[in-house]
Amino acid sequence: MSEEDEKTAANGAARIDAAPSAPAATNIPGVVLGKDGKPCRSCTSGAAFASWSSSMKKKPAAAQAQASEMNAASIAATRKNCPPDVEQLGNSSWTLLHTIAASYPDNPSPNQKEDLRGFMRTFSRLYPCWVCAEDFQTYIQKDETKVGSRAEFGNWLCNAHNEVNRKLGKKEFDCSRWEERWRTGWKDGSCD
């Protein structure tokens, strides 16, 4: 998966080359198409998916203009009980993975090491955003999951997360502070 493909998924841009036969979705900026050519909810931001969905309902021009003026925050607020978009899925997934790292043993048994390796392989194959899944699989092939200890896995995961952050143009996290963020809480007591 190229860096451009990762940006495509993360930013919600349409992947026309992945599904050239999907006419409606390719006209809406930010909609990522699934391998079946249909819009992929898990790969598209809520705002882009809502824009595509409303355009498919053939609303009157005035209603379409009003819907297009809604910002991402207001759309997200109305989508609390809807399937997650790419941002919600990503944030929830990273929270789960970092929390697993925080609870992983300092001295894992051989079975615990294999369980974690297997989980990460499976997670990368089952991840709902196919573009993100393929990219994570490539990352794991390039830099195998480090499972020797809590510190080793936590640092490996932080580096993996930072690689995604770089591709998305986001600020990198200081990996020397991953346990403070995900396990012990900030030293200033704000998590107590």
Automatic annotation (TrEMBL):
<dbReference type="InterPro" id="IPR036774">
    <property type="entry name" value="ERV/ALR_sulphydryl_oxid_sf"/>
</dbReference>
<keyword id="KW-0560">Oxidoreductase</keyword>
<feature type="domain" description="ERV/ALR sulfhydryl oxidase">
    <location>
        <begin position="82"/>
        <end position="182"/>
    </location>
</feature>
<dbReference type="Pfam" id="PF04777">
    <property type="entry name" value="Evr1_Alr"/>
</dbReference>
<dbReference type="GO" id="GO:0005758">
    <property type="term" value="C:mitochondrial intermembrane space"/>
</dbReference>
<protein>
    <recommendedName>
        <fullName>Sulfhydryl oxidase</fullName>
        <ecNumber>1.8.3.2</ecNumber>
    </recommendedName>
</protein>
<keyword id="KW-0285">Flavoprotein</keyword>
<feature type="compositionally biased region" description="Low complexity">
    <location>
        <begin position="13"/>
        <end position="25"/>
    </location>
</feature>
<dbReference type="GO" id="GO:0050660">
    <property type="term" value="F:flavin adenine dinucleotide binding"/>
</dbReference>
<dbReference type="GO" id="GO:0016971">
    <property type="term" value="F:flavin-dependent sulfhydryl oxidase activity"/>
</dbReference>
<keyword id="KW-1015">Disulfide bond</keyword>
<keyword id="KW-0274">FAD</keyword>
<keyword id="KW-0496">Mitochondrion</keyword>
<feature type="region of interest" description="Disordered">
    <location>
        <begin position="1"/>
        <end position="38"/>
    </location>
</feature>
<dbReference type="InterPro" id="IPR039799">
    <property type="entry name" value="ALR/ERV"/>
</dbReference>
<dbReference type="InterPro" id="IPR017905">
    <property type="entry name" value="ERV/ALR_sulphydryl_oxidase"/>
</dbReference>
